[in-house]
User: Which sequence fits this backbone?
């Protein structure tokens, strides 16, 4: 399953792990993805979202209805 936040669109970043001898190997910085279930009053049902920790804070600030409208406007299925 891909590590992409449904609210912010945050995707993994890529870089190098640098050892003590300064050998660089590829590594991946995954966002902190959580599965959260929200009640959406405008839809009248629960919605399960794959959101990052920062996405959860965004939902707390803006409200679930505003965030769901943005997700649906992108054409993403809930």
Assistant:
């Amino acid at each position: 399953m891909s590590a992409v936040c449904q609210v912010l669109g945050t995707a993994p970043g890529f870089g190098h792990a640098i050892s003590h001898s300064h050998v660089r190997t590829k590594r991946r910085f995954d966002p902190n993805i959580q599965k959260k279930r929200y009640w959406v009053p405008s839809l009248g049902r629960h919605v399960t979202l794959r959101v990052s920790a920062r996405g959860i804070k965004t939902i707390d600030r803006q409200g679930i209805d505003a965030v769901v409208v943005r997700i649906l406007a992108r054409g993403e299925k809930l």
The chain is about 25% helix and 35% strand. The chain has one domain: 13-74.
